[in-house]
Amino acid sequence: MVHAPSWRVLAASLFLVVGAGSASAQSAPVPTKGPGHAAIASANYLATNAGFEVLGKGGNAFDAAVAVSSTLAVVEQQSSGIGGGFMALLHRASDNRDIFIDARETAPKAVDMKVYVGKDGQPNRDTSTNGPLSAGIPGEPAGLVWMAAHYGKLPLSVSLAPAIRIATEGFQPDARFLGTIEDRKDVLARYPASAAIYLPGGEVPSAGWTLKQPDLAKTLQRLAAKGRDGFYKGETARLLVDASRGAGGNWTAADLEAYQAKEREPLSVDYKGYRIVTAPPPSSGGIAIAEILNILAGFDLAKLDVAHATHLTIESMRRAFRDHNEYLGDPDFVKMPLDMLLSKYYADGLRATISPDKATPSDLLPAAMAPEPGMHTTHFSVIDAEGNMVASTLTVNLEFGSAFVAKGTGVVLNDEMDDFALVPGQPNAFGLRGALANAPEPGKRMLSSMSPSFVFGADRTAVIGSPGGSTIITQVLEGILAFIDGKSATQITAQKRYHHQYLPDRVDVEAGVFDDATTKALTDMGHVLRNRSPWGFMNVVTWDHRTNTLDAASDPRRPSGLGKVQ
Ligand code: DON
Fold first, then answer.
1. Which of 397, 414, 416, 448 for mutating ligand 1's site (highest number of atoms within 8 Å of CB)?
2. Do residues 256 and 241 make contact, with C-beta atoms less than 8 angstroms apart?
3. 503, 433 Cβ separation under 8 angstroms
4. Closest CA to ligand 1's atom 11
5. Active site: which residues (predicted)?
6. Total count of domains within the chain
């Protein structure tokens, strides 16, 4: 056992005297003319192609984003869907404006923390991750309708058409999709509407199986025809509420009617001549990325060997995640010291507590095991010919969310309730320990790590993001740093990764990220390294303004993705 690091005290005192800094995004330096062609990178080739189909019908990047999102909701249902939520960053070229759409799920009015606590006082993982009680009120349908209505050029009947067609005609799920059915088969088998779709004849289907989803197609058609009311009212809403309540859930028609997607001001941070525009709360990702970059800005990493540059980055991650656990939650419910967390002076204070060659032990708390990330949640990136951009991360949380399909809808409900701090101080599925700021309350959004981001430089722009639970934040950070070092989308997605999240106090590493000498040097500095696999599923688009070239890359770790320039 060690004492809590002294930087906590230092940080608290800095808050009292400083309170400086700005959380709002100013316009970023981008060329006045678009690239003249488009790029899309997503986790599934059918979704990337759906985006291009809609661009070909006269749509812009925002229409393409609706097409990609809704197609992913059909072909990559284990990762995201209209029973889940998303956070998207938009860049509108015509007025150089950055917009953040928060389509995060909310807790239902009847939320009851007691159901997530076992008799032993420990988190009850079954209620928080399986079945209807684990599901927040979906945000994705409202967010897509909002994006289409405010920023798109085409009606939903056009931008949702590829998804409706694939749901109707069917597609052959890839090995990753089938593997997640295998992972979740016991829970899917509990719910008849889930088993009927994913376990035909009671078995996990094998390669070559065609999945047709007429109920999901009808649900999407109601959304296309009636917009928001086609999901949050009428037949879909009734089916969702009946299914939830019929299986022990607590949703009401009023919960669905009350749901609103929200526009928020994106966060912005300047780093080494680049402007990074990223996700504000209720994502913790942007705050953590900004805090880490502000700390790193005071070091000259390029002058250091890999081991020492990595050590300083790990120490910055540790400090940012510590704040994440303590302060962050839904901005509509909690007051957060954002000015402090984003202040350069605060970062100076944190930097001063970092030893140049010794790891700082994280805390008194025992380390918790975090599960492996990366098979669920999804991110895609788009740039269109005019220079409009979308970075969107979408999720149902764990594989197949709650594994509960609402009968008659084809909709898999999320299990996002586990992203709340259901038992304060106890780790969630990603080992994240929240405080009161992230406790569940009726109508409140659970904190997210989703970090869709833009990186704007004088000569180059990147659209970036990843799934991966808590590792989203560090994967996106490492991608941003690689882009600033001159790397392309292809190089960024291929780059090996590492992660530290304060607790558990260890560095998760991808095999091969460090050579033997660096591994030894980091270990000698006191870092505990642990191999972890798999890693996220980055989908990145970059634009080099000097040559007007686009690069679109899907993570080479997964064959189903497609980055395409056209
Ligand atoms: O919003 C979040 O932070 C989580 N629900 C994301 C989950 C995730 O990325 C799982 N993927 N590996």
1. 397
2. yes
3. yes
4. 468
5. 377
6. 1
